[in-house]
Amino acid sequence: MDSGPSSSGPVLPSQPRRSLGLLLGASAVLLLLFLGSPSLWTHEGRWAVVCQEMMRSGDYFHPYLFDEEYFDKPLLSYWLMIGCARIFGVLNEFTLRLPGVLAGLLAIFCTVRIGTRRFNPTVGLTAGWLLATSFFFIYWSRQACSDMLSLAAVIGAAAWYTERRDRPGFVTSAMLFLILAVGGLMKGLIAPVLAVLVILPDFLQEGRWRRHLRPSLALAWIPAALVYLAPFLAANSTSGGGYESNGLVLVFKENILRYFKPFDHTAPFYVYAEYMPLYAVPWSLMLPFVLWRAVRRWRDLSRDSRWVLLAGLIIFLFLSLSGGRRNYYILPILPFVMLAAADWIHHAPGLRRRRVATWTAAFCAAGILVWFGVALPIANRHGDTRLLGEEVREAAEHYAPWPEWKVVLYDTKPQMGYYLNPSVRARRLLTPEELDAALKEYPRTIVVTYAKRVDVVAARMDNAEVLKEKSILPGSFGKPKGAPEAQVVFIPRVKFAVTPRR
């Protein structure tokens, strides 16, 4: 039986606490560097608009995406972003993304703790460095969405279980259930389900489950149930909506129903096999060796080495068997992949693997610093949606004061609704008939659409000033984007305009 990894020639300094502080400090730099510089990207716009509407209305239990109730996600991710906005006094890209950064730091810390407890401090710290220098882990931690919050809940539950598995009792069980409940309020039931599945193989070993079956277990779930149900009950008790506005009904629809009978997000079953190597870059280069070792020497591996591999396999299979798939759903597998890679690095005698890992981590950290600290800040000064929003507002105020304008988004992304932030809540339209009605109702209406929908809008606004989203790509800095999904804005040249500002 494999007695565990070799501890000779560590890739990290020998003092664990100082080394952990160095790791978390370096990770914080990578995660926070120019965090608010890039414009909001794809689904970040939804979180921004929902938070903006909550703060505008003072209603924190009924999320609105423009003029529609939007219970697709639980409330806690919005509350965390709004909490950061209250602390810093402003809702912007930085405060919207800060919860993801904190979740990323928590995930790194929990990964180190699992590696330390199950292997040794060297393996734990190495796994933390591997995770912190994975480009797409940093990338997704810097996004204003719930995916990294869900990942942190999964690895957090696994870390708590690892720390307390030999100390069963009320506190151990109640805290684990609370972590699962909070995870369920981040993105949905996916976090608690994945956490239970990765814990289960170890829980069933050596009769460990018998030691946890105590009378106190009958009470330990109650605090977690109250925490999980409280936001839904509060929202339902103050809602005038019907079936589709019931948060618990939508939990069933978005999680359970979508798993077995998906109504969207139907990527092919092999999507995670395609994207797993990408999300693990650069450490995906080690995955073939990790898997080869597992296949050849499975029985010789320690129980903890097998558990880490099983945890990753369970996540992969569970998500692949789901009917609803999107490539980034695989993110919770990353900490377990890095633990398996760190175990492989330190298993072999000698320093070759450790030197390769050290230089690779240093190179990737430098690349991440250059990308987020230099390339993106420069690029976002030349284009993208935030700059377009500034240009639209300046142009519109040449025709009429900003409070007199309304904004509608015709079949496009929500970001411009956030950046324009009109006095009257922006609306999202999906049909030409809705667009006709909006323009007839109020002439001072700014229309935002995709480039591929320009002809539909232009036919109805032939006397409008047209502004186009500018590219941030090196070969076309400051030039209009040519992609079909580029955003285009129509501003009516209102004949009864007030005197332009000087």
Q: What this model shows, in words?
A:
The chain is mostly helical. The protein folds into two domains: 16-376, no CATH class; 385-492, no CATH class. It has 21 helices and seven strands. The longest helix has 28 residues, at 352-379. It is globular, with a radius of gyration of 25 Å. The model is unreliable at 1-13 and 497-502 (pLDDT under 50).
Q: Assign an overall shape.
A: globular
DSSP strand tally: 7
Instruction: Give the distance, in angstroms, between the N- and C-terminal Cα atoms.
Output: 81 Å
Low-confidence stretches: 1-13, 497-502
Radius of gyration from CA coordinates: 25 Å
Give structural attributes.
single chain, 502 residues, mainly alpha, 2 domains, five-stranded mixed sheet, two-stranded antiparallel sheet, 7 strands, disordered N terminus, disordered C terminus
